[in-house]
């Protein structure tokens, strides 16, 4: 979560599908908004997350992914803003 991007511009949504680990606890400690799914279907759960999102861009970070640098979000947004095509 240590990103070089303004935290007030990042919205973290976690769509919980009855997780059995500490995902919800950890997400809440980082200020994430928890949304319950219960559908046991990853694409349906992503759709639920999209419907709750308020930002300009949506970025999915699934359980098997990791942000590779502190500049990841900043570079990601910069690329989108600079390359409108």
Estimated share of beta-strand residues: 5-15%
Number of helices: 3
Distance between the termini: 29 Å
Described by the principal axes of the CA atoms, the overall outline is: globular
**Category by helix and strand content:** alpha+beta
What is the H/E order?
EHEHH
Tell me the Rg in angstroms. 14 Å
Poorly predicted residue ranges: none
Give a description of the structure.
It is a single chain. The chain is built from 3 helices and 2 strands; from the N terminus they run βαβαα. It has helices spanning 23-29, 42-52, 72-82, and strands spanning 13-16, 33-36. A two-stranded parallel sheet has the order 1-2. It is globular, with a radius of gyration of 14 Å. The model has no long low-confidence stretch (mean pLDDT 90).
Write out key terms for the chains shown.
85 residues, 3 helices, two-stranded parallel ribbon, alpha+beta, globular
Short précis:
The chain has 85 residues and is an alpha+beta fold. Helix content is 34%, strand content 9%. Strand 1, helix 1 (23-29) and strand 2 form a beta-alpha-beta unit.
